[in-house]
Write a structure and sequence with these properties.
Strand content: under 5%
Number of helices: 5
Shape: elongated
Helix content: over 70%
Radius of gyration: 16 Å
Order of helices and strands: HHHHH
Length: about 140
């Protein structure tokens, strides 16, 4: 066999985690006005990290689904509803997509939703690590 069934998913899943958390840290600085003269730059960083996080999250979800099929964790796309790790990661990504596309929202409300989606993503990754016997 040329590769282990899990390798590609494990390779890709770390990118969205790092990008979404980094974007949230930028958001904390943005909301707190800690760097007043850099606010426009921080907003741009939040936008880019969230956008790239979404791209890598979609790739990670796709490779995770392929891995789940190959390891017979799932038999079809409809098995997602029985697998909390799968649907939590999809919901988290959907929230990030919505946040990415919202333009006119108070930055304090935005950070609350941003925090919720980051925490949801962290919980989903925890469930995935438990399923893979990593913890």
């Amino acid at each position: 066999m040329l590769y282990d069934k899990e390798v590609y998913h494990f390779l890709f899943l770390h990118f969205p985690i790092g990008l979404f958390i980094t974007g949230f840290i930028f958001n904390i600085f943005y909301v707190s006005d800690y760097l007043n003269d850099k606010n426009d730059r921080l907003k741009e960083y939040i936008h880019w990290t969230m956008g790239m996080g979404i791209v890598w999250s979609i790739i990670s979800i796709t490779t995770g689904f392929i891995t789940a099929l190959e390891l017979e964790y799932m038999n079809s796309i409809f098995d997602i509803f029985d697998k909390p790790h799968a649907y939590i990661m999809i919901v988290s990504t959907m929230i990030f997509i919505i946040l990415f596309n919202i333009k006119n929202i108070d930055k304090r409300i935005f950070i609350i939703f941003h925090l919720f989606s980051v925490l949801l993503m962290i919980y989903g990754t925890h469930l995935g690590a438990k399923w893979a016997d990593r913890i």
